[in-house]
């Protein structure tokens, strides 16, 4: 499947109609929309703000905390989520409202894109002298950018074993993205980014099955609950 294809390819190309179009959508969903990998207990969760999806991302992070997967967070994002709050500030507030202790949250208020989310989060940990202590992380981001977030992490923070979870602002499940016009447009724009971003050296391909296998072998919350 050509990831350089125009985002308008499925609805406008006659060859993509009917069965071919649905096959294309299934391929896009399977490759791009990594809703959640297998999870294990992690040293840190990095929450990547995404404007209108930011509340869903924060709520996912709070659920990870309550399920025992992690007790430490970096919330990252300088973009304004509201007139009063950056993405990072909104996520911090929502985490606290959902019972995550304030001392468990580090605020990263500079990043404006996914590359910077990961680079600045890693730099924050490095500046605290804790890089060797962070071996496993869970990134949490927009469902439309699932694979790109994982590929960015593999490129920019290669020392860690990274799992992934997502927030979804849309009223339909990710597998049904093609039934919602805005969701479909967003996903197809995301699809078109992958090849040029790889060509620029910004992404490293990831093996989702290998990640899932390794995550299943790591401690689970029932075996190891992080200490607050």
Automatic annotation (TrEMBL):
Gene Ontology terms: biological process: Gram-negative-bacterium-type cell wall biogenesis; peptidoglycan metabolic process
Q: Which CDD domains match?
A: YdcF-like (cd06259)
**InterPro entries named in the record:** Cell_Envelope_Assoc (IPR051599), DUF218 (IPR003848), Rossmann-like_a/b/a_fold (IPR014729)
Domain named DUF218 is located at 45-192
Q: Name one Pfam family in it.
A: DUF218
Q: Which domain of life is it from?
A: Bacteria
A single Gene Ontology CC term: plasma membrane
Name under which the protein is recorded? DUF218 domain-containing protein
Q: What is the lineage of its organism?
A: Bacteria, Pseudomonadati, Bdellovibrionota, Bdellovibrionia, Bdellovibrionales
